[in-house]
Amino acid sequence: MSTTTIAGVQVDVNDEGFFEDPEQWTEAMAPDLARAEGIDELTDRHWQVLHFMRQEYFEKGTGPTVRALGKTSGVSVKELYQLFPKGPAKIAAKVAGIPKPRGCI
Amino acid sequence: MRRLVILGGGTGGTIMANRLRKDYAEEALSITVVDQDDHHVYQPGLLFVPFGLADPEEISRTRHRQFHSGVEFLRVEVDRVDIDLDKVYLVDGTVLDYDVLIVATGARLVPEETEGMLGEGWMEKVFTFYTPEGAAALADALESFEGGRLVVNIVDMPIKCPVAPLEFAFLADWYFTERGIRDEVELVYVTPLDGAFTKPVASATLGSLLAEKGVELVTEFNTGEVDGAGGRLISYDEREVPFDLLVTIPVHSGAEYVGRSPGLGDDLDFVPTDEHTLQSKARANVFAIGDASAVPASKAGSVTHFEGEALTENVRRFLAGEELVAGFDGHANCFIETGFHKALLIDFNYDTEPLPGHFPTAAGPLTLMRESRLNHLGKLMFQWVYWHVLLPGRDLPGVGAEMSMSGKENP
User: Fold this and answer.
1) Which end of chain A has the least Cβ crowding within 10 Å, N or C?
2) What DSSP string describes B341-373?
3) Across the A/B interface, how many CB contacts are shorter than 8 Å?
4) Do the Cβ atoms of A85 and B237 come within 8 Å?
5) ipTM of the complex
6) Other beta carbons within 10 Å of B178
């Protein structure tokens, strides 16, 4: 675990850059986190996914997989890849300030 | 008399029916198992069918013959469960009331969820060995395969037996070597994971083994489309992997009736379940075992067997009005066939990833994460153990339900 500064605030992240404590995340941090992943601008569609990720995390204790996202977030899998090209479940989790989804065992 | 209904007569359902039948007199507890068919397939055996090393007939038995006497077996499809009324509705109109329900209906393949998979080329150059029909058809396709690109592909997790696709790649290397045409065949392993396996130490070991055997590894590939006619796998981020023969593991879901039963399952029709007590999150009197549950353990027969011990105790406690015990630790134990009469063994749980060493103790005789001939014999012998020890509800001598650190080396 290490600390890093995002939008002027110190937060705890793991080796891969995922938040250790989702409570430390604020919406103001998302644009910086997104830029680090190569996403220049967060659109309403991005935000819809980010909010959905956090809601799922707080309800179920883990972020959803891409397939579950495609079925339930209101954004198709194809569009999810357009929004978060390098892997929607992982990248959206990182930008939404939640731990890496456990999805695969 | 209390009533136990078990949905599914596969590994988990059979183990639970037989274990509980031994523990309760028929006057104290009725046990009814429901399944839509009467074919119990020893699923690990499917891996060997494409290579002509097993026959679909010899790995399948009737379900009803596996139950102890005093277990009622109904061969009907489930329509839905009403968890508020404690009732199971069957498609033939039968209604079963239960005091305790165990969901053990496993996982099913849903190839139709991937664009193009069932289109042109399906069962001609696009196969899965996860069904008896698919495995048998693939055997014919492999026999007439004279060279080209053979691609093994996992579409998405979770899948049953996450090591089986790796084993397929290893066995294919052996098979084509034996046939003398290994140089004519390109083997490619395409996975949505970021390595050969989910856990770091095993991923490194298995990744090196793929490299050693000349199998190309393509990672973080999320299959969006199968183009059978053009022989291409296409990912959602528009990468392409060409193939002449595709061996795919389609996405999995839970049983369809779970989706028709309000409150029982999740988005993929698996049953959200406490990972240690195996009690469902839907209702206190509903439990889930094996592939049907959404616990973060491998979907594997060994996991189901170990869960069986913990769940038997918790059903007893539930019926007695006692507090449940957090008895299941996520224990999994899997042989991994590597070809040339050898196999690896991995043993792990929720907290401990697969580590090298010896099994079941430091004295062996089996080796963990290292190839050996004895492991291969263990894998072959396991089919006998499955029908004669696991299904009847006996314990495995020397192998506890809880994982042991004995014999394991820390990395």
Assistant:
1) N
2) TEEEEEEE-SSS----EEEEETTEEEEESS-BH
3) 46
4) yes
5) 0.75
6) 12
